[in-house]
Every structure is written in C-alpha cells, then in structure tokens.
Design goal:
Layout (H helix, E strand, L loop, with lengths): L6 E5 L3 H14 L11 E5 L6 H6 L6 H13 L4 E3 L9 H5 L9 H12 L5 E5 L2 H6 L1 H8 L3 E3 L3 H15 L5 H16 L4 E4 L16 E3 H14 L3 H6 L16
Parallel strand pairs: 1-2, 1-3, 4-5, 4-6, 6-7
Length: 255
C-alpha cells in the first residue's frame, strides 16, 4: 500500500495562525470522508524566540529553534513543510538547508496569490509589522513581479501593529474586523489594487467587506499544499458542481 505524503506544520509563530492554517487545509482538501483528508503533523512550538526581537537586535536568532522543529517534523514522517509566519521566512534558506524535504515559501505564494486575485497587478498594499516591512522581503518580490508596494502611513502602521497584538489576544470580533476594513480602504485610496496580509494573524479578522481583494498568505499556503498533494482543491471541485460558488462554505480568501 502506498503511503500518503504527510504535511508538517512549523507552528507557534503565532499559535492560532497554525491552527487557522490547518483549518484551511481541511476545508480545501477534496475529501468526502475522514480517510480522504491529508495527514498533518503540527508542532505548535511556542518556545521559538521572537522573530521581531531578533531582527531588532534585542533577542536571539529563531533560526536554530525553527530548524530543529523542522528536523523533528521530518523525522516524524513529514514529506512537506509549511511555516505559517511571514517574518520567519527571513531565515528561510537556513531552515531549508536543515532538512531534506521542501518547505513551501509563504512569501512567494502571497505574491502569486495577489497576481491571481488582481490580474495585471501594478500596485499592491502591504499590512505587516514594521520589522517585516524593513526586511524588504516583500518589496523585492513584488518589484520582480512588476508591482509597486504601497505601505500605510505612520499612524496606520501603528494601528496595524495594535491590530495584530489585539488579534493575538483573541480579539477578532467587530472592532478588529472594522479596523482591518479601514486599513485596507486607506491603502485602496492610495492606489492599491489588492492588499497582502503580511502577518499570519491578520486573516483571522478578515471578512468579505473589503475595498479590494485581500491576499491571505495562510490561505495561499494551504491552497498550494493541497494542490501539490491532491492536484486540485475542494474549491475547484465544488465550483465544477454548483451554479452558486459564492455560497460555498469555504474560507473567503482568494475564492
């Protein structure tokens, strides 16, 4: 009997984002019964040092702990790794070198998702921590894709960080959702044709009332993993069998 590939999730950055990613994988997998789902291993390793403090020079590098987590998941049978944290991809090459199995890159997939959701994309907004913005990881990738990056002004950047902190404490209700809609609308007013959510927590406060398409990296990561292992997603499978795809009980991001 052929053994199904196993997905390993390097979690803990933050913990709820890893669970949110797993939910996306479950919803997107074209399964009709439990046994048709993809086996996943999640290490919600909350002991990984702060990525932001490391990049600010006030804390240790998280790369060794992330690499150890990746190696442990590989040893447990994972054939594909997902790392639901944008800023952790600053250390992507070092972590990938520590394992012999592929790690899907959330940064590349977010750029691809933006191009899919906004064909002809030339201007894209980014909501992320200031540390993520300073790395230039997204600026370089979007520049290669032919799109200029639009960033929040200083007050909105502070609002973005406050929103991320609020979501991490479980505040994903109306106030957080309204804040995200406001931040997105401001970027749209500045010419953004889509807005990339450059922090994995932000998708937890997203809803369908946005001025422009939102690109949730967690959704893109889950979608790419399911496509890689199944060849199609439940999104595509159900769209082929319904006249009303907008009513599908799936995450709204990218659908």
């Amino acid at each position: 009997m052929t053994q199904e590939p196993v997905i390993g999730i390097i979690g803990g950055m933050g913990p709820e984002a890893a669970v949110y990613l797993l939910a996306h994988i479950l919803r997107l997998t074209p399964a009709r019964e439990d046994s048709e789902h993809i086996r996943c291993l999640l290490d919600n390793n909350v002991t990984i040092p702060s990525r932001v403090r490391a990049l600010e020079g006030s804390g240790p590098s998280p790369a060794p702990a992330i690499s150890e987590t990746a190696s442990r998941l590989e040893a447990c049978g994972a054939a594909l790794l997902l790392m639901p944290c944008h800023i952790a991809h600053y250390y992507y090459d070092q972590i990938q070198a520590a394992v012999s199995i592929p790690i899907l890159n959330i940064l590349d997939l977010t750029v691809e998702g933006a191009q899919r959701l906004a064909p002809g994309l030339t201007r894209v907004g980014l909501l992320a921590t200031a540390a993520t913005v300073r790395t230039g990881l997204y600026a370089r990738r979007f520049a290669r894709a032919g799109a200029d990056l639009i960033l929040p002004d200083d007050p909105d950047q502070r609002r973005t960080l406050d929103l991320i902190k609020a979501i991490k404490t479980g505040e994903t209700g109306p106030a957080s959702r309204a804040c995200l809609r406001s931040l997105t609308a401001r970027l749209a007013e500045g010419g953004a044709q889509a807005v990339a959510l450059g922090c994995t927590e932000l998708g937890l406060a997203a809803d369908s009332g946005q001025a422009v398409p939102l690109v949730d990296g967690l959704f893109e990561l889950a979608r790419a993993a399911v496509l890689r292992l199944r060849g199609r997603t439940r999104e595509e499978d159900l769209r082929s069998r319904t006249k009303h795809p907008e009513l599908l009980p799936l995450p709204h991001m990218g659908i």
